[in-house]
Specification:
The complex is a heterodimer of chains A (about 325) and B (about 80). Chain A contains 15 helices and no strands. Chain A is mostly helical and about 325 residues long. By secondary structure, chain B is α+β, with helices and mostly antiparallel strands. Chain B contains three helices and four strands; from the N terminus they run βαβαββα. Classes of the chains: A mainly alpha (about 325), B alpha+beta (about 80). The interface between A and B is medium-sized, with 33 and 26 residues.
């Protein structure tokens, strides 16, 4: 699919820029150009597709359905999948969280949504496909959804309702089964322009991270010998995954910034599972997210939430290292 | 006088929507009050799920995405 792009990049690097074939500089520049173009193309495609899905996705109906029906566990799956489909903007997470709780949806189910939402999104998917291919991407998306289900289920069992902020608790008590106002009815032709505009907006908002990430990645790609990290972090080191996750939690970046670096780490010998769990920790849990959640829950609840999710990420890291 | 409310906790999309609303109002030469609501507690009174939300005279017109300037202009002229 990207063969022509590679030919173009080779031509640009070696014929136009006159860099030497096989030189470190040549490899770094070639990697930088190829990855940047490939990622921009994929970002545009995936976010446009997701934009249309979102434009037609009946958020209100799903919410009403979840709050009215007894689903015997299926509600965790629905909420988690829903978190994967909803868009990239992290600040929508809190209004949605409250909207769910207010609608009488159990806290655990709401958490399922909250866990998956930042982990699986159009940017992560586009970057993942471009760096690791379709199969690891599917595994990543599926494990993100499964993690949301399991994490939400555990958090639901912990009965944390009393750790919500008083105003949010009041909302639960007065929880109403009212139907939310239906979505806008807009013709397809009128949706195209906003969706494409939004895709361009997404690319604009992450491009700087992508360039920095790919730039760092390109340098490492050209200058760090293959297998360099194997000396320090190998699959046999049982502490590698937990350490990677603990390092990743306080850090904050979107998928766009970390993935190019992850790709190089993997090429240079870090096991894919360890690298993915690091990425999940960076993307899914962060200090900015904690401060957003602080508006709805107390510190104890945030701590428990982070711990459960971090534990799930660590476990899935081990699992990835076994199956990938 | 018409009134626009932009609801959103302050992410990039919400800021763009707010700017677009101001821009639309300016280009129409209409008297419209534009209010930005960033407080989540306040926001939840309007029963919304996804942000940003654009309301005109307390009716939700656009939600979960950025409203375009032209779009807001059309909505205001209805």
């Amino acid at each position: 699919m990207f063969d022509n792009l590679q030919l173009f990049t080779d031509w640009l690097t070696y014929s136009i820029f006159g860099l030497e074939h096989g030189s470190k500089m040549g490899a770094a520049v070639n990697f930088f150009i190829f990855d940047t173009i490939k990622i921009i193309i994929l970002l545009f495609f995936i976010s446009t597709i997701m934009g249309f899905v979102n434009s037609y996705f009946p958020i209100e109906k799903v919410k009403n359905y979840l709050s009215k029906n007894k689903l015997y566990g299926l509600e965790y799956f629905i909420a988690s999948t829903f978190g994967a489909i909803t868009p990239f903007c992290s600040c929508s997470s809190v209004p949605l969280f409250i909207g769910f709780v207010k609608g009488g949806i159990p806290l655990g189910v709401t958490f399922s949504f909250l866990i998956t939402s930042p982990l699986v999104n159009e940017v992560a998917i586009a970057m993942f496909i471009s760096m690791f291919g379709i199969k690891p991407t599917l595994i990543y998306v599926l494990s993100g959804i499964i993690m949301g289900i399991i994490g939400g289920f555990i958090l639901g069992k912990l009965k944390l309702e009393s750790n919500l902020m008083p105003w949010a608790q009041k909302l639960i008590q007065s929880s109403t089964q009212e139907d939310l106002i239906e979505g806008e009815k807009t013709a397809f032709s009128k949706r195209v322009f906003p969706v494409i505009n939004e895709s361009i907006g997404i690319i604009k908002s992450v491009i700087l991270y992508v360039l920095i990430g790919i730039g760092l990645g390109a340098l490492m790609h050209g200058y760090i010998p293959t297998g360099f990290f194997e000396k320090y972090i190998s699959k046999d080191n049982p502490f590698a995954v937990p350490i990677a996750v603990l390092l990743g939690v306080p850090m904050y970046s979107n998928a766009a910034g970390v993935l190019p670096i992850i790709q190089v780490l993997v090429q240079k010998g870090i096991p894919l599972g360890t690298a993915i769990s690091f990425m999940m920790a960076v993307v899914g849990l962060s200090i900015p997210e904690a401060t957003l959640l602080k508006k709805v829950m107390d510190w104890k609840m945030i701590f428990i939430f982070f711990s459960v999710v971090a534990l799930c990420i660590i476990l899935s890291g081990y699992l990835f290292n076994i199956i990938l | 006088m018409k009134q626009i409310k932009v609801l959103g906790p302050g992410c990039a999309k919400c800021v763009t929507t707010y700017k677009n609303a101001l821009e639309a109002v300016k280009s129409l030469n209409m008297e419209v009050e534009v209010i930005k609501i960033e407080d989540i507690e306040e926001m939840m009174k309007y029963n919304i799920l996804s942000t940003p939300v654009l309301m005109i005279d307390n009716n939700i017109k656009v939600k979960g995405r950025v409203a375009e300037i032209n779009e807001i202009r059309e909505l205001l002229q209805q």
